[in-house]
Automatic annotation (TrEMBL):
<dbReference type="InterPro" id="IPR036102">
    <property type="entry name" value="OsmC/Ohrsf"/>
</dbReference>
<dbReference type="Pfam" id="PF02566">
    <property type="entry name" value="OsmC"/>
</dbReference>
<protein>
    <submittedName>
        <fullName>Ohr subfamily peroxiredoxin</fullName>
    </submittedName>
</protein>
<dbReference type="GO" id="GO:0006979">
    <property type="term" value="P:response to oxidative stress"/>
</dbReference>
<feature type="compositionally biased region" description="Polar residues">
    <location>
        <begin position="12"/>
        <end position="27"/>
    </location>
</feature>
<dbReference type="InterPro" id="IPR015946">
    <property type="entry name" value="KH_dom-like_a/b"/>
</dbReference>
<dbReference type="InterPro" id="IPR019953">
    <property type="entry name" value="OHR"/>
</dbReference>
<comment type="similarity">
    <text>Belongs to the OsmC/Ohr family.</text>
</comment>
<dbReference type="InterPro" id="IPR003718">
    <property type="entry name" value="OsmC/Ohr_fam"/>
</dbReference>
<feature type="region of interest" description="Disordered">
    <location>
        <begin position="9"/>
        <end position="39"/>
    </location>
</feature>
Amino acid sequence: MTNIEQVLYTGKTHTTGGRDGASQSDDGQLDIKLSPPGSARLGTNPEQLFAAGWSACFIGAMGIAAGKLKIRLPAETAVNAEVDLGTTDGDYFLQARLKVSLPGIEPDVAKALVDEAHRTCPYSKATRGNIHVELSIA
Protein backbone atom coordinates (compact mmCIF):
# COMPACT_ATOMS: atom_id res chain seq x y z
CA MET A 1 0.00 0.00 0.00
CA THR A 2 1.26 3.47 -0.90
CA ASN A 3 0.81 6.30 1.60
CA ILE A 4 -0.04 9.64 0.02
CA GLU A 5 2.55 12.31 0.76
CA GLN A 6 0.43 15.26 -0.40
CA VAL A 7 -3.35 15.25 -0.68
CA LEU A 8 -4.39 17.20 -3.80
CA TYR A 9 -8.15 16.93 -3.39
CA THR A 10 -10.70 15.18 -1.21
CA GLY A 11 -14.12 14.36 -2.63
CA LYS A 12 -16.72 14.42 0.13
CA THR A 13 -20.24 13.04 -0.13
CA HIS A 14 -23.09 12.28 2.20
CA THR A 15 -25.18 9.26 1.18
CA THR A 16 -28.34 7.94 2.74
CA GLY A 17 -30.53 4.97 1.86
CA GLY A 18 -27.90 2.95 0.00
CA ARG A 19 -28.94 1.90 -3.51
CA ASP A 20 -32.43 3.32 -2.88
CA GLY A 21 -31.23 6.63 -1.51
CA ALA A 22 -29.50 9.85 -2.42
CA SER A 23 -26.03 11.32 -2.38
CA GLN A 24 -24.83 14.91 -2.14
CA SER A 25 -21.36 16.41 -2.23
CA ASP A 26 -20.32 18.89 0.42
CA ASP A 27 -19.91 21.63 -2.22
CA GLY A 28 -23.39 21.10 -3.68
CA GLN A 29 -22.10 20.18 -7.15
CA LEU A 30 -23.40 16.62 -6.87
CA ASP A 31 -26.98 15.98 -5.78
CA ILE A 32 -28.30 12.68 -7.12
CA LYS A 33 -30.93 10.07 -6.48
CA LEU A 34 -29.73 6.48 -6.32
CA SER A 35 -31.56 3.40 -7.55
CA PRO A 36 -30.64 -0.27 -7.92
CA PRO A 37 -29.16 -1.31 -11.30
CA GLY A 38 -31.84 -2.19 -13.80
CA SER A 39 -34.70 -0.68 -11.81
CA ALA A 40 -37.24 1.60 -13.44
CA ARG A 41 -36.87 4.14 -10.64
CA LEU A 42 -35.25 7.51 -11.18
CA GLY A 43 -31.60 7.71 -10.22
CA THR A 44 -28.19 6.35 -11.03
CA ASN A 45 -26.27 3.56 -9.34
CA PRO A 46 -22.77 3.08 -7.95
CA GLU A 47 -21.61 1.12 -11.01
CA GLN A 48 -22.52 3.99 -13.35
CA LEU A 49 -20.82 6.50 -11.06
CA PHE A 50 -17.70 4.35 -10.87
CA ALA A 51 -17.64 3.99 -14.68
CA ALA A 52 -18.00 7.76 -15.13
CA GLY A 53 -15.27 8.57 -12.63
CA TRP A 54 -12.85 5.98 -13.99
CA SER A 55 -13.34 6.98 -17.63
CA ALA A 56 -12.86 10.69 -16.84
CA CYS A 57 -9.70 9.95 -14.85
CA PHE A 58 -8.43 7.64 -17.60
CA ILE A 59 -8.77 10.40 -20.22
CA GLY A 60 -6.80 12.69 -17.91
CA ALA A 61 -4.07 10.06 -17.56
CA MET A 62 -3.94 9.66 -21.36
CA GLY A 63 -3.55 13.44 -21.63
CA ILE A 64 -0.53 13.35 -19.32
CA ALA A 65 0.93 10.44 -21.30
CA ALA A 66 0.34 12.34 -24.57
CA GLY A 67 2.13 15.37 -23.14
CA LYS A 68 5.18 13.25 -22.39
CA LEU A 69 5.15 12.07 -26.03
CA LYS A 70 4.69 15.69 -27.16
CA ILE A 71 1.41 14.95 -28.91
CA ARG A 72 -2.10 16.25 -28.36
CA LEU A 73 -5.10 14.06 -27.67
CA PRO A 74 -7.84 14.47 -30.27
CA ALA A 75 -10.80 16.59 -29.14
CA GLU A 76 -12.98 13.54 -29.82
CA THR A 77 -11.06 11.31 -27.38
CA ALA A 78 -13.55 9.16 -25.50
CA VAL A 79 -13.70 6.21 -23.14
CA ASN A 80 -16.76 3.98 -23.00
CA ALA A 81 -16.57 2.33 -19.59
CA GLU A 82 -18.65 -0.68 -18.63
CA VAL A 83 -18.67 -1.84 -15.02
CA ASP A 84 -20.40 -5.14 -14.31
CA LEU A 85 -21.83 -6.08 -10.94
CA GLY A 86 -22.06 -9.84 -10.64
CA THR A 87 -21.83 -12.79 -8.31
CA THR A 88 -19.62 -15.81 -7.95
CA ASP A 89 -20.43 -18.41 -5.31
CA GLY A 90 -22.88 -15.98 -3.71
CA ASP A 91 -20.35 -13.16 -3.29
CA TYR A 92 -20.62 -9.85 -5.18
CA PHE A 93 -17.84 -8.71 -7.50
CA LEU A 94 -17.11 -6.08 -10.14
CA GLN A 95 -15.42 -6.37 -13.51
CA ALA A 96 -14.82 -3.69 -16.11
CA ARG A 97 -14.17 -2.92 -19.75
CA LEU A 98 -12.66 0.35 -20.97
CA LYS A 99 -13.12 0.94 -24.70
CA VAL A 100 -10.90 3.84 -25.78
CA SER A 101 -11.43 5.96 -28.89
CA LEU A 102 -8.45 8.01 -30.09
CA PRO A 103 -9.42 9.11 -33.63
CA GLY A 104 -6.48 9.95 -35.85
CA ILE A 105 -3.86 8.44 -33.54
CA GLU A 106 -1.71 5.69 -35.02
CA PRO A 107 -2.50 2.26 -33.46
CA ASP A 108 0.94 1.80 -31.88
CA VAL A 109 0.83 5.28 -30.34
CA ALA A 110 -2.74 4.72 -29.14
CA LYS A 111 -1.67 1.47 -27.47
CA ALA A 112 1.24 3.24 -25.77
CA LEU A 113 -1.11 5.97 -24.48
CA VAL A 114 -3.66 3.45 -23.18
CA ASP A 115 -0.97 1.29 -21.54
CA GLU A 116 0.60 4.32 -19.83
CA ALA A 117 -2.78 5.63 -18.70
CA HIS A 118 -3.68 2.25 -17.25
CA ARG A 119 -0.36 2.21 -15.43
CA THR A 120 -0.80 5.72 -13.96
CA CYS A 121 -4.57 6.33 -13.59
CA PRO A 122 -5.48 6.20 -9.87
CA TYR A 123 -8.67 4.20 -10.62
CA SER A 124 -6.66 1.66 -12.60
CA LYS A 125 -4.18 1.42 -9.75
CA ALA A 126 -6.98 0.94 -7.22
CA THR A 127 -8.50 -1.92 -9.20
CA ARG A 128 -5.28 -3.60 -10.38
CA GLY A 129 -5.18 -7.17 -9.15
CA ASN A 130 -8.62 -6.80 -7.56
CA ILE A 131 -11.02 -7.04 -10.50
CA HIS A 132 -10.89 -8.29 -14.07
CA VAL A 133 -10.31 -5.35 -16.46
CA GLU A 134 -10.30 -5.44 -20.26
CA LEU A 135 -8.86 -2.57 -22.31
CA SER A 136 -9.55 -2.10 -26.00
CA ILE A 137 -8.96 0.60 -28.59
CA ALA A 138 -11.72 1.39 -31.06
